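G., the chain you wanted modeled:
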Amino acid sequence: MSKLSQRHLLGIKDITRQDIELIFETASNFKDVINRPIKKVPSLRDVTIANIFFENSTRTRLSFELAEKRLSADVVNFSASSSSVKKGETLLDTVNNILAMKVDMVVMRHASAGAPHFLSKHIKANIVNAGDGTHEHPTQALLDAFSIHEKLGSVEGKKVAIIGDILHSRVALSNIFALKKLGAEVMVCGPPTLLPKFISSLGVQVELEVQKALEWCDVANVLRIQLERQQLKYFPSLREYTLYYGINKKMLDDLKKKIVLMHPGPINRGVELTSDAADSHHSIILDQVENGVAVRMAVLYLLAGAQG
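Predicted structure as tokens:
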């Protein structure tokens, strides 16, 4: 079994281009599996995986759970909202209690940046970061880059615009790291209040006008406005945001070229994207969902190979 260079997947920043290419190759094989009548393989039959979500998530948790079951792993789901964490139990105590049940791998989402990194220094199980605060969301970036690779044949040399709430998005940061490692040109676009001050130091272009970003790019990855993470008011109203940064089908059709439209979901329909844009021939949003399962299968399978 081929191995990743790391025992954990904590962030795209920590892995190499070779790791990403190995994940893509493995995900392609698993994609064939999940399109067969019998969608399971026995690859992780003796592996127990705990999904530990300290933040609510439907799509990511379901995608991981499906990936684990497709690999025949034993799956334990743990939701912090209904657990002893509410009673004051620490992160380390929670995970040690789960590991005492002989868990081999932990998939974790946490509201605090760096939580999976902290854990990886204290426990033996492999850890997959399913999103830590506004820091990273590595499997989302991998499935996004894999979807571009599948649609356009390569990520190298492609122009990718990440549009929307960059400041609160862990998806944006992981995507920037992944796309740059694979040789893409990256632009971020959004209101000045939603762009981090350090963003240009990551080697990306910055654009404030959405029309110019669309004219520049081959791929537009549109992010959700993360109202639940915004403690302050970063723009006057959703209506005003939509007026200046919302994307509709006419804008895409009027471009002098065909571009690929992506969204990590869930979509605020009528805010960052209109329904006719999200459901148009430009969109590969549903492909991203399918690819999410294949990419997460690849990550879990390869990390299981890195055990020991």
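The mean pLDDT is 91.

Shout if anything looks off.
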